[in-house]
Specification:
Helix 2 crosses helix 7 and helix 8 runs parallel beside helix 9. The protein is built from 10 helices and 10 strands. It has 2 domains: 74 residues, no CATH class; 193 residues, Rossmann fold. By secondary structure, it is α/β, with parallel strands linked by helices. Helices cover 42% and strands 17% of the residues. It has an 8-stranded mixed β-sheet, with helices on both faces. Strands 2-3 form a two-stranded antiparallel ribbon. The relative contact order is 0.15. The chain is globular, with a radius of gyration of 18 Å.
Length: 283
C-alpha cells in the first residue's frame, strides 16, 4: 500500500488530469483506478545478499514464496516493507546469526523473488504480507522474534494480533494505520472523497477485511496479551511519520520506543547502532 510521500512525479503527471475528470463523471471508475495504483508495487533493482543463505521451499495459496535462512538457533523472521525484498536486511543477518539465532527472510507476494499475489503481477496487498509471514512460520517453526520494516511492521503486528505467536517483536519505521495516508495520496493525485472512499471500499472487498483491522494502535489497545515489542522510528522519516511509531509503542502493552535523528526511512536498516540495539533486545 502506498503512502502519499511515495507518489512519484511521473505518476502525478500521468494520472492527475484523469482523476480530475473521473471524479466528476465516473467516480466508480476512478475508485477502481485508485485501487490498482495504491496496490502497485514500485519497480526497483533487487540486490541479493552478499552471503546467500539456504533456500526454503514455501508456497502460499499454491504460489511460490522466496524464503532464505541463515545460521541456526531460535528463529528470527524478517519482513521487509512495501516494494522491498529480504536482502534489504543484509546488515542484520551476520550479527543475528553470530548471536545464536537462525535468521529467516522472506519476500512478500509480488515482491523480490516471490510469485505474484492474488491481485496479479506487480500488485500487492498488506493482507498477503501477513499471510505470507504466518505461512513461513508454520513451515519453518516457532518464532523467537518477528522483525518488520515499514508496511512489513504493520504486517507483523497484524499477524500477531490475529493470533501468530512470537516471544518478541521489533517494528522499524512502522505504519500505524494506512487510512490517514490515503488523504494525502488522494490530494497528490487530484481526487477527493468520492474516489477515496470508493477505493477503500473496493480494497476491503478484495481482502475480505475492514481497513480498521490495520489500525495497529487501536487493536493493540484492546488486546489482552501481546509479546513485548521494540519500536524504532526516525524523526525525519518522510515515508512513515515518526508519530506512527510513538502511537504504536504507547498502545502496545509492553512497548519500548527508540527515536533516532537523521537516519530516514531506509538508512535506518543499515545503521550499526540500530542493528546492535535490535540484537541486544532479542538476546
Amino acid at each position: 500500500m502506498a503512502a502519499s510521500s511515495l507518489v512519484k512525479s511521473t505518476i502525478v503527471r500521468t494520472y492527475r488530469g484523469a482523476f480530475w475528470t473521473l471524479e466528476r463523471t465516473a467516480p466508480g471508475l476512478g475508485s477502481a483506478l485508485a485501487e490498482r495504483l495504491w496496490c502497485t508495487v514500485p519497480r526497483g533493482r533487487i540486490k541479493p545478499a552478499a552471503a546467500p543463505g539456504t533456500r526454503v521451499p514455501v508456497q502460499l495459496h499454491g504460489r511460490d514464496l522466496a524464503v532464505e535462512s541463515w545460521g541456526s538457533g531460535p528463529n528470527v523472521y524478517l519482513m521487509h516493507g512495501w516494494g522491498g525484498w529480504r536482502s534489504q536486511w543484509e546488515h542484520f543477518i551476520a550479527p543475528l546469526t553470530e548471536a545464536g539465532f537462525r535468521v529467516i527472510g522472506l519476500d512478500a507476494p509480488s515482491h523480490g523473488g516471490s510469485a505474484p499475489g492474488g491481485f496479479g503481477k506487480r500488485r500487492g496487498l498488506l493482507t498477503e504480507f501477513a499471510e505470507a509471514l504466518t505461512r513461513v512460520v508454520t513451515v519453518c517453526g516457532p518464532a523467537h522474534a518477528l522483525i518488520g520494516h515499514s508496511a512489513g511492521s504493520s504486517a507483523v503486528a497484524a499477524a500477531v494480533l490475529d493470533g501468530l505467536t512470537a516471544d518478541r517483536l521489533v517494528m522499524i519505521a512502522p505504519m500505524a494505520d494506512p487510512v490517514p495516508y490515503s488523504y494525502g495520496w488522494g490530494k497528490a493525485l487530484g481526487f477527493g472523497e468520492p474516489i477515496r472512499a470508493g477505493f477503500l471500499q473496493r480494497l476491503e472487498r478484495r481482502v475480505g477485511r475492514p481497513m480498521a483491522d490495520f489500525n495497529i494502535p487501536a487493536r493493540a489497545a484492546l488486546a489482552s496479551s501481546l509479546p513485548p515489542a521494540l519500536v524504532i522510528h526516525d524523526r525525519r522519516d518522510k515515508q512513515t511519520l515518526h508519530t506512527d511509531g510513538i502511537a504504536i509503542s504507547d498502545a502496545w502493552p509492553d512497548g519500548k520506543l527508540v527515536l533516532t535523528e537523521g537516519l530516514g526511512h531506509q538508512r535506518i536498516l543499515r545503521d550499526a547502532g540500530i542493528v546492535s540495539t535490535v540484537v541486544e533486545y532479542l538476546s
